[in-house]
Design goal:
alpha+beta; globular; five-stranded antiparallel beta sheet; 14-stranded antiparallel beta sheet; 606 residues
Amino acid sequence: YKMKLILLIGFVALTSAISEVDDFGEELLLSGEVVYDSEDAEEEAEADLGTEDSTEPDISGLAEEFDYRFHGTVHPAIHQGTTCGSCAYVAGTHVLEGRIGHVSENYLAYSIQAFMNCRDKICKGGLPYSITSYAKKTGFINLESEIPYTKRYCIYQKPNKTACTEQCGAFHPRDWTNALDDQFVIIAGTRAARSEPAMIAALQGGPLSTCFNPKRVEPGERCSRGCQHINTVVGYTRDKWIIQESYGKHWGGNKDGSWRTTRGSQCGNAIMNKAYYPYIIYDYDRANAYYRELPDGVDETKVKFLEVGDYGLILNNTRNWGTAKNKCAFLGSACLGVVERSNGQYELVSSWGANTGGDQRAFKKTQMVVYLKHDETGEYVKIQKRRRGKFSLTTVQDQANAAPFFVSYSRLISYEYPMYHLVDNKMEKIVGGIKDIDVMKAWTLDDCNIYNPQSGNSFDVITEDLPRNKKQYTLGASPYDPLAPSQRFGVGLSGRWTLRSSLTQTFLAELKGNKVFTDNEKASVQKMRWNARQILRHAGYVVPPTVVGTGPDFKFGEKEFEFERRHCVITRLIKMGMEDNLALVDGNLVMSSDKNSHWSLEQGDL
């Protein structure tokens, strides 16, 4: 009798954990997973949640009904498995790949399995935004095509889960393809969308994740507040939210893996209360180019296109708008834009011809360039082409005749001759891709004045007197003074970098809640980055002209927030300990151990 009772209780428990019928006559599968567990504090710390905007977005011009599955790319619903508590990884991965695909114009399906493997949480509960935080921290995302979803299988392949850790790109980057190499984006953290207008506005840029309790507490409700299960919000109707489940692509009453709940209901409010999304920004710093759509289109018969083989061009470079624009950005003056041809292929433009418009969509490229001006003489660097493909570097008095360079991966690449980049005091041919150039041939900037033309202010170290004759050094802004030692800093040429004061020879870091220049080992060094001439802080906020405090979210073309790099020492990223600095001596470009040559990177658009 006891054995029968135990079996009966076990059967009832298993049945209720796997399947129940809701009030709408649809089968709702439950994995029995607990999402919000004892590791909540760790997950929250990893989340990198941005500050919520207290102002509601204007949604008056947006569609009353919207399903992102028909306007962008969302991964089809998958079945997470009834014994695999991976709903956070399913939703978090699908949301991240959808939103990065939207910004990069290059959708790629990411590996759910790799995220679980890398974090050693295979089929364990989690929070969806920890996937975003992990991708931001490591800068590596595996492709689903290389590491498919196999749940716990890798645990049993080799002892000590070694088969799982082997299938992790962050641990073994040389063994796997990094999706982010083909997607020019900045993962800036996670944002909340805790109102209907905020959710509707956020859904225009991709799906959201949400967390809820699937236990119904009122008749007709699908869920309540809590965090026992995680799904993907993919759209809305006039009165409902559309949520994609993780129980297969044919699950649910709509037979498409989704379910709906009424906006403003108990369940609808629960969905809204835990709605999050990754904040993704286009990485203009990597491309140093931007595109404008030609409103009248083009006649493709009048356009001249680059051919496969030109400048290392292969078919895989132009799979879609995103990859085509990426490749075009790296080809300087050789590529003027991108066209979607009538056969559906994307091609790179070498000449627009006598075009007055047509049926094909087209985007014209503008390259963001810099001219290297030697401050002591007022002369600019010029590239002189010689016979047999040889180049020499000279100087000229005016910018109009100078050599424009574009910057990517801390390299100075010729706009006129995009297969060459500046290495020491000569031009060297690029072998492979720009990203593959030896890091020993990359540049950084030292002793720079960081100047905001709109305000006339520059970065400045502000010295504050403290008790016991101590001093504190903070970052501020003061009127431009080219001779002030406190206005000189070491900064990166591109990518993420740290800000080092030439005055104190220390880095800007956070210590006990204050941002100060310090060498204290307990301080957390602050990272910044260039993006379209603006400077981004943590979580995607721009540095304001006052430098103090947090500026708004990044928005391309906001002149008020653009900075210039003046009076810099151009120096090797990896120091050799001898002649590391680019210098102009007696009219000749040389490498020098002295820091007597200063350069301003004058900005232009071509």
